[in-house]
Amino acid sequence: MTINYATPAPEKLFPVAGVRLGVAEANIRKANRRDLALLALEPGATVAGVFTRNRFCAAPVHVCREHLSGGREIRALVINTGIANAGSGDEGLRAAKETCAAAGRLLGVGAEQVLPFSTGVILEPLPVDRIAAALPRCRDDLAPDRWHAAAHAIMTTDTVAKAASRKIDIDGRTITVTGMSKGAGMIHPNMATMLGFIATDAGVAAPLLSALARETADESFNCITVDGDTSTNDSFILIATGKSGVVFGDASSPGYARLREAIAGVALELAQGMVRDGEGATKFITVAVEGGRDREECRAVGFAIGHSPLVKTAFFASDPNLGRILAAIGYAPVAALDVDKIRVWLGSGGEEVLVAERGGRAATYREEDGVRVMRAEEITVRVDLGRGPASARIYTCDLSCDYVKINADYRS
Amino acid sequence: MTINYATPAPEKLFPVAGVRLGVAEANIRKANRRDLALLALEPGATVAGVFTRNRFCAAPVHVCREHLSGGREIRALVINTGIANAGSGDEGLRAAKETCAAAGRLLGVGAEQVLPFSTGVILEPLPVDRIAAALPRCRDDLAPDRWHAAAHAIMTTDTVAKAASRKIDIDGRTITVTGMSKGAGMIHPNMATMLGFIATDAGVAAPLLSALARETADESFNCITVDGDTSTNDSFILIATGKSGVVFGDASSPGYARLREAIAGVALELAQGMVRDGEGATKFITVAVEGGRDREECRAVGFAIGHSPLVKTAFFASDPNLGRILAAIGYAPVAALDVDKIRVWLGSGGEEVLVAERGGRAATYREEDGVRVMRAEEITVRVDLGRGPASARIYTCDLSCDYVKINADYRS
Lengths: 412, 412
What we know:
2 domains, globular
């Protein structure tokens, strides 16, 4: 099931000057599917990455970090699906590096100028020979308008490919931002991982791009939760090719706020697409927490609600179960939270119902109103903590019988 | 479903001198069921409590804390099922206090000498008049041998009543420890709560009993997780009547270690009984973490594994899914964890299989061995962090389709 999401048509995904993409069938785990993507970058691009904090991080994550900090210009990305190359020890590191070397040879660049990404089952060896054999076909397929094909080639348990694109105009010059991602269930550590790739033809100085990548991830991929688990391979890469001729040296550069907004918009669309494609999901839930002292405590409350299996099963049942929501708020790790000041609304389709205030059910609340808003496919839980100016939004989905079935049956 | 657990027969639950119990039908939420229990304590008992840390704590929890710190001897406990009296504001506090006053009048003691406990649905008013009307029938039913009946009267979604009892001999004198609890799904905030009550006829000085209650909870009720949610009403009460004549003034008193062990044993049996009766549970899982720097980090790793929906669905499927277990260890909040030192075993029925070492699958591991141990109803995951002398055990169950069904259907 996918909640109100469909992959954009190929022509809606604008090419980004300086980025070419190609895909191929490498037969990594399943036959007859495109499971390998190559991104080739023209010289002059800056590249920044944000990676999983899971300590069992996969071999390609180690190699990405090494190559990004190595000081040489990044010229290519290789992404395979089927096998995650995680929990694979020294052999896995060697396989990731050999993948880079093979792509580098093809493109006439160094192995350390290539970033590797893998997603799929954990604890199985990466068939680097099959990847090397397929890379020439990826290279022959390289073209600027292959985002749609690439988004399909990186899927695992995704039921739809996720991609997004937009153009903005800054001082009469057009800047393009296009991205793709995979992930269904944030996260699914076996058929692992969230991967996200966004490119722009703006030029962005390396230090600024690093900050922008971190900020973008924090406001998009780090705001979603399907089951609360974080994966071994999660990676987000931001690429700025500079081919538009518009260059941003620092955060005060004119128009930078608009570039940032466009990138954030693409990232949020990708992140929400992953929730909408969450395993077994039937409802898309926005948890909007406001009135906090800082953003972190708003996020803590949002994730307490968004992670609670009891809240998520209640949403699956379209049950406005206030007790479960209040209990989740009550155990969120927030110091000195005064429950008497908290107000909670449930909303959908433009309607919003005050359900809780002063530590209990709102005096005006009628169960039939709660039931009506809960029937929708897209629901917002709004929480006012009543103690400050900060806010945050978390996106999640419900917990259905199908989630259990998908995750219990996956390896059998 | 209940995993290898049955309520002990009434004659296996030894009376505790100084405690009498009585039950009645109060028609609180459902007709024709005993839903009210009264415990009457002889003068001279000490009583200590440990309560939920959820900030939306229920009215009876507030009243318990007030009465326990008020300095007057506790002489009675009133426990109702059906309605939790949580999220009920000032009205709820009044209802809890009126319950105490009604019990106090019956027994000739002050309202502040009575502790109230409620469990059931949240956000509905407690019918204190029906409780007051039924209390005389509880009083008429009071007897030392009614632990079995009381354990049944406090159930909510429990499929079996939980009780445990043992006797120890200290210097030729017999000491009895008997307890009961309710909870299925730790925790189920709608039909809410874990409640636990343990009484001994040992005498224990008040400060020592407070410490003992905290320690006991930490090693039993605080070591279990079904869905990771904590409730608004969770309470554990430890009663020491002193009627055996054996008195413990401080932790160095002769025989105190044996009393502590007996109480811990009863508490662990009750706590494990709740996991075995976990909603939809088909497997009982012990997560034993050792080699940590301190107990807290062992618990953090244990709970990361025990809370992961992906791990729990894999157990439901009898799937030895190492990737999910390793990923959960990898995101546990433990500083500077070196994954290369971690070893993981899966065990059941006296057999133990080394499944992971040095950051990946163990060289000796064969999938068929993992599959064999995972088929059992009782499984141990043993994790050696390889960095210290501390250890901890967490108890949990699997996540099944029935869990979702029970929690999605509950209010409909």
